[in-house]
Amino acid sequence: MKQQILERARGTLEAFLRKQYADAALEVLSVNPEVDGYGDEFLWICLKYDDGKHGKGIPDSLARLRLKDRLRSELQGADVEPFPVVSFIAESEVELDVR
After folding, report:
1. What is each CA distance from 98 to 27, 94, 95, in whole angstroms?
2. Residue 83, phi then psi, degrees to nearest 5
3. Taking the C-alpha atoms of 40, 88, 15 and 6 in order, what is their torsion angle to the nearest 10 degrees?
4. pLDDT tens by residue, 48-85
5. Dist. CA 31–CA 9, nearest whole Å
């Protein structure tokens, strides 16, 4: 997958989340190209959510399903064809003290 497509995908996702889900404190952590067992490309998208004292936490299962559908539509609208596979990780799991 070309770097240009990855950059477009990430930019599209970030803009969409800022616009539609700002109150949910979701942030794009990574967007990586992968290939499934059939040789088809997909995008592995990891979203970070705020699980802190004032955070809203991970969206419920129905909200996650809607989000995934909306992300697919946004990516297709930006001419990014690989199917998105979305995972969620808590902010507390990402920000480990590395010394």
Report:
1. 21, 11, 9
2. -70, 135
3. -30
4. 887 776 666 666 777 788 888 999 999 999 999 999 99
5. 8
**pTM score, two decimals?**
0.81
Distance CA 60, CA 93 (A): 19
Q: Which residue has the tokens 């088809």?
A: 40
User: Which position has the token pair 């946004």?
Assistant: 74
Q: Is 96 exposed, middle or buried (0-12, 13-18, 19+ CB in 10 A)?
A: exposed
Length of the chain (residues) = 99
The DSSP H or E segment spanning 28 is strand 26-35
What b-and-e string marks burial along 46-77, b requiring 16 or more CB atoms within 10 Å of the CB?
bbbbbbeeeeeebbeeeeeeebeeebeebbee
Number of CB atoms found within 10 A of residue 15's CB: 12
